[in-house]
Protein: Aminotransferase class-III
Organism: Popillia japonica
Amino acid sequence: MSVLKTINAVKQPRVKLEFLGVKWYSKFVQGEPAGPSVKEVYGPINKRMKKELSEIQTTLSVDRFIDLDRSIGNYFVDPDGNTFLDTYMQIATVPLGYNHPAMLNVFKDQSKLKYIANRTALAMYPPSNWAQHLKRILMSIAPPDMGYICTQMCGACSNEQSFKSVFIWYNRKRNGGRDFTKQEIETSMHNKPPGCPNLAILSFWGAFHGRTTSSLSVTRSKPIHRLGFPLFEHWPAASFPLYKYPLEENVRENKQIDAKCLAEVEDLIQKNEKKGWPVAGIIIEPIQSEGGDNHASPEFMKELQKICKKNTIAFIVDEVQTGCGASGKMWCHEWFELPTPPEVMTYSKKMLAGGYYHTQEMLPDKGFRIFNTWMGDPARLFVLEAVIHVIKEQKLLEHVRKVGDYTLKGLTDIVKEFPNVLHSPRGRGSLIAASCKDDPTRTKILTNMKKKGIIGGSCGPTSIRLRPSLIFEEKHANIFLDIFRQSVKEM
């Protein structure tokens, strides 16, 4: 039975909802299976499809194929009929699970369908009502006191373009807002200063910010991302605070870790200045995702922002993976209660396209400085509108906090049961992880989970992480926790 038929076949709906004139019943998506069911982890159809695809492109990173007609809610169904509870959701990108009715109904509106058929160059020829769409959708969820937006395609290009905004801002401050000199214009065509000045972005060990040249230069999570590529040698990296858990039992030690990391940041800023590569911006994830689900404390983030202010450095918060409600707030950095907004906050993944919010002073002063042909995806903006509607209508931020706390408690109990295998359970909202004693142990646990029907994620040297949809419920958490416990016990 198709997904839409499954949805329409529901006889006892719990909540009646409406979006764009289309009614459906949800708590949250009807028609989900009762649980996972796996016959063969990599079945014959999957194997055939991978062989076929490998004839025309690389499949070295392909895990499995998805049947989009049969996948629904929190469940991933592959072409062989294997049904997995998906706690990883396409690398943290699916906000409302698979085939949510609100998202499926978006392009029944013919006016929105035209945005797909006639994709415009937004930076030069935006649709006549583009400003209204941005205000209604993206600005409705803007971080506090961040009144400007720059739409992009993905997380990497969002970070890449945000660095250019930072350099424009920094040079304007340093040069007093004067226009470019003849020497700057000429040397810029040779990739040399002063036209192409020696400036740096500081990041943190364990960071992941993308795979384009500048964003890869600040990515420090895995060598395989960087090997063989010419990157910016003088862009420094500081130690990210790696806390001891449980947090409540290690307050003093963790404060010392914060202080040591902050001192290192200040030292690197001074050293780069002396080398002639001043730091123009510092980029940080509220939770280092690819690097191991490492959490920065509110105190650390506040002090880091103070360092930026003191040194006239832009504070860039990368919310590509932590944004759009995953932490239980729309933006994870809201948990830190920063006294002023960051200069830049980038987003993508669950936001379905990319971009960054920024303050007024980060606006460029000349055209074609922050530019590409499409400057985002207007069609995806309308799908995001449906997502935002459901988040608000069904109070999903509160739901994420509640289910996240429930899941983390269950995970913590399992860690206590198997202290020789697991340690350091941690989480904020649905962004939950625990560490294994070593990488081979982690690999075996994830393999056991997959055989039993759970798709999970890994990050950092030894961590297992969850990146579920915003409609992940306690019943799904119970299935995950039960299978996770079995998978660990089998070790």
Q: What stands out?
A: The longest strand covers residues 422-428. The domain at 119-391 is CATH 3.40.640.10 (Aspartate Aminotransferase; domain 2). The longest helix spans residues 251-275. The chain has two domains: 3-9+31-104+395-489, 119-391.
